[in-house]
Design a protein that fits this description.
The protein has 13 helices and 15 strands. The chain is α+β, with helices and mostly antiparallel strands. A hairpin with a 2-residue loop joins strand 8 and strand 9.
Length: about 450
């Protein structure tokens, strides 16, 4: 598209990677933003009175006077659903609302997957207990547990005993307040639009699986499912916490084709006819089994600049084209700037440890030495850190994005940048198999394959 194109857009919950990604195209696509930041105070105080339906109503009333031509969001908690609702209300191109609901309701998504692609599914069941109730007896451990509706891997982990499950699902009054306010906006829409899914105010248990974790990124245009690529998720050894995301990765072409086939069947079943998507999956090379973790009905925004660096394609620009009803395949490619790129995630696992933020001088020096680098810092007060340890098992205090001429050059640059910032380099920690979520492939639990 030429630089003459200027279409005003509405971007919802536009923070972090999205602010940078959509900002790259602000000249061609000027935009207004709406929504609050869940991870910073005082912005996140808006959670106390957030009503998704009123939010959408207000935006729909403003759309014509503001001159908006389309809407987009990559925010998993509220934004993707809000964007779908606004697009539906205005008659704009967008992902169908029910498709977003079906992907984000993790129990319902498992049920659909069991119907259309059972070989890529795993044993699962809703946890037969309400929030705060005692963990039920009779479960066979280890189990992987996660909320039916959540984002950012909140409360998602392997538990090895009833005591661990009980501890994970004990919530104080403040925690219950946050959980209910995070889930209820989705629950109200799903109750009326996808009632067969049942309540999202519960937990899901799954059989752990073996293999390495990957992300298939792609989009649907004109009902045709197209792949962008596959990013590998590398964990901190002995945990289910992301350490880095690598692109490209060495997954075999036939495995990528299998992943795309699974995505095509699932997305078709839920009516996902337009928009970007991300499918998280495990692949076990020993058994050749591909297992879906979940479908995200939006771009994985953290990976956008990885594709831009290596392939010269920008998923944020693709999102804008899709929001205007145009085929992203017609976009020209930029000149790649790297042969390998990674998103490096810095964490601490000890609640007593301190994550020091880089000084202003160190940040300036980082920008000077790594003009292609992206630096994100997530300082938090001690109380918020404690919640992170409870809900996530760690505290993510920083992220760095870099490119390199090859994997060795990328590692060297990561080491240098980490020393400069005063942070331990995540690229230096050897990956381990099996990961914390994994067990031997032949282990069988007493979970059943739940169906609708």
């Amino acid at each position: 598209m030429s630089g003459a194109v200027r279409e005003r857009m509405l971007i919802l919950f536009n923070f972090d990677w999205d602010r940078i990604g959509f900002g790259r195209w602000a000249a061609e696509f000027p935009h207004d933003s709406a929504g609050f930041d869940l991870f910073s105070f005082p912005s996140n105080a808006n959670l106390a009175f957030f009503d998704l339906e009123r939010f959408v109503d207000r935006l729909a009333r403003k759309a014509v006077p503001a001159g908006w031509r389309g809407v987009g969001s990559n925010h998993e908690q509220f934004g993707a659903l809000a964007a779908a609702l606004v697009a539906e209300r205005m008659g704009w191109p967008g992902t169908p609302v029910n498709a977003v609901l079906a992907c984000q309701h993790k129990l319902h998504a498992r049920q659909v997957l069991q119907q259309v692609c059972p070989e890529a599914n795993l044993p699962f069941a809703p946890l037969p207990a309400r929030y705060g109730e005692p963990a039920p007896d009779g479960l066979d451990y280890p189990l992987f547990i996660k909320p039916v509706k959540a984002a950012f891997s909140v409360l998602a982990r392997t538990v090895h005993s009833r005591a661990e499950l009980h501890a994970l699902t004990r919530f104080g009054a403040g925690e219950l307040w946050v959980i209910r306010h995070l889930v209820e906006p989705f629950e109200r829409i799903a109750r009326s639009r996808l009632p067969q899914a049942g309540t999202a105010h519960r937990m899901l248990i799954e059989q752990p699986v073996a293999g390495r974790q990957y992300n298939l990124d792609g989009y649907v245009f004109g009902g045709e499912v197209r792949a962008l690529g596959v990013v590998e998720s590398v964990m901190y050894p002995g945990t289910s916490a992301f350490m880095r995301f690598d692109y490209p990765c060495d997954i075999a072409p036939e495995t990528q084709a299998s992943a795309l086939d699974v995505a095509r069947r699932f997305l078709g079943a839920v009516g996902f006819s337009h928009g970007l998507f991300n499918m998280e999956f495990y692949f076990d090379a020993a058994s050749g089994k591909l297992t879906v973790i979940e479908f995200n009905p939006r771009m994985a925004a953290q990976f956008s600049d990885l594709y831009l660096r290596v392939d010269g394609v920008d998923p944020h620009r693709m999102a804008l084209e899709l929001a205007c009803g145009r085929d992203p395949a017609l976009l020209p490619r930029a000149m790649p700037t790297a042969a390998a790129a990674s998103s490096f995630v810095y964490r601490i696992f000890d609640p007593a440890a301190v994550a020091a933020m880089p000084t202003t001088e160190a940040r300036h020096e980082f920008s000077r030495r790594f003009p292609d680098g992206l630096l994100f810092m997530f300082p938090k007060p001690r109380g918020s850190m404690a919640r992170d340890f409870k809900w996530l098992g760690s505290y993510r205090y920083g992220i760095v994005h870099l490119g390199g001429s090859d994997a060795s050059d990328l590692q060297r640059r990561c080491e240098e940048a980490s020393r400069l910032l005063g942070w331990p380099a995540p690229c230096l920690v050897a990956d381990a198999e099996p990961k914390a979520r994994s067990v031997t492939p032949n282990r069988v639990t007493r979970l059943s394959m739940e169906t609708s």
